[in-house]
């Protein structure tokens, strides 16, 4: 999904003031003089990451596929640890006790109750009925209010109809479910729950087989969440529809060197993983039916923390 809502990377109080003791190198000083600050380290890291992704995608085409979580199996809990990428190196000391040191993937079908899943599916259907992309992929971000509509987005909270659509109970369920996922992530990845914050975007998604109309409909590209969404350290997905029954295609695929690993969406299934390049992934194109899911994302950086969405406005 390309709800790429890039955040302002400066904290609210920060300024562009020149540091008191100028320890910058020549090109940095030159850039500062011209008013443009070029972060070479960031650019090179990005280029290396893009190259790594392209190489991995190239080899993944020939990869065999292994089912990590099949739709028709009920998984109590499954956790697989994998080595962490270098992506967290700079943050290890900054967010000690939260930045991933133990990386991996977790799937559980027993975390969220069927009633909670039904309620969330109902919220997704009600909310997305107010809009919808003209291509195949629509989102509703409960925090910002972003709702796909036609070829763009509107703010659902500005729509008169939305006041009658959501209730306090809807947001309570979302918060409760989010809390359970947060707890499970802290537990499995061995981190402190108190240091793990909800971050944006956190959104419902609805995918159909309609042909794409804009870049926002192109959800199937391999990507790294930490790169796409920046603030993410842990990604979780809660699936609200059954693969093979309510839709075809739309499996979630981790791209690994040795093989690809698929997670088949199943109602109530939670899939959570560390957001760095150790978990490069994509979603297969949906070929029939409608696929609903929620992305619930977490950060270790308090600067990017958001409050639980609530009834307001
Ligand atoms: O819906 C999914 O299974 C995953 C979507 C995804 O990869 C993303 O939003 O970054
Ligand atoms: Fe993703």
From TrEMBL:
Q: Name one GO molecular function term.
A: iron ion binding
Say if the entry is tagged with keyword Cell membrane.
Answer: no
Q: Which cofactor does it need?
A: L-ascorbate
Provide the alphabetized UniProt keywords.
Dioxygenase, Iron, Membrane, Metal-binding, Oxidoreductase, Transmembrane, Transmembrane helix
Residue ranges occupied by any Fe2OG dioxygenase domain in the UniProt entry: 199-301
> What GO cellular-component annotations does this UniProt entry give?
membrane
Where does the record place the region Disordered?
Answer: 1-32
Q: Tell me the domain of life.
A: Eukaryota
Name the residue ranges with Basic and acidic residues bias: 21-32
The portions of this protein that span the membrane are 43-60
This chain belongs to the protein called: Fe2OG dioxygenase domain-containing protein
Organism name: Scylla paramamosain
């Amino acid at each position: 999904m390309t709800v790429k809502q890039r955040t302002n990377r400066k904290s609210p109080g920060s300024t562009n003031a020149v540091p008191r003791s100028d320890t910058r190198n020549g090109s940095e000083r030159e850039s500062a003089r011209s008013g443009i600050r070029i972060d070479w380290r960031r650019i090179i890291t990005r280029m290396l990451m893009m190259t790594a992704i392209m190489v991995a995608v190239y080899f993944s085409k020939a990869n065999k596929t292994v089912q990590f979580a099949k739709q028709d199996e009920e998984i109590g809990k499954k956790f697989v640890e994998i080595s962490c990428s270098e992506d967290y190196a700079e943050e290890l000391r900054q967010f000690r006790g939260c930045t991933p040191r133990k990386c991996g993937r977790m799937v559980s079908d027993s975390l969220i109750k069927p009633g909670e899943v039904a309620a969330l599916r109902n919220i997704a259907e009600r909310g997305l009925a107010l809009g919808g992309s003209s291509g195949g992929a629509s989102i509703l971000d409960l925090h910002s209010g972003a709702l796909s509509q036609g070829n763009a987005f509107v703010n659902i909270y500005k729509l008169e109809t939305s006041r009658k659509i959501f209730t306090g109970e809807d947001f309570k369920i979302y918060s409760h479910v989010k809390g359970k996922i947060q707890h499970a992530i802290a537990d499995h990845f061995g981190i402190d729950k108190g240091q793990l914050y909800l971050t944006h975007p956190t959104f419902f998604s609805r995918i159909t087989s309609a042909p794409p109309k804009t870049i926002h409909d192109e959800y199937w590209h391999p990507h790294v969440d930490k790169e796409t969404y920046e603030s993410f350290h842990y990604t979780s997905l809660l699936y609200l529809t059954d693969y093979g029954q309510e839709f075809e295609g739309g499996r979630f695929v981790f791209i690994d060197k040795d093989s690809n690993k698929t997670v088949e969406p199943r109602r109530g299934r939670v899939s959570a993983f560390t957001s760095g390049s150790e978990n490069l992934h994509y979603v297969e194109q949906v070929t029939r039916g409608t696929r609903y899911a929620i992305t619930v994302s977490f950060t270790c950086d308090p600067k990017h923390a958001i409050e639980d969405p609530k009834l307001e406005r």
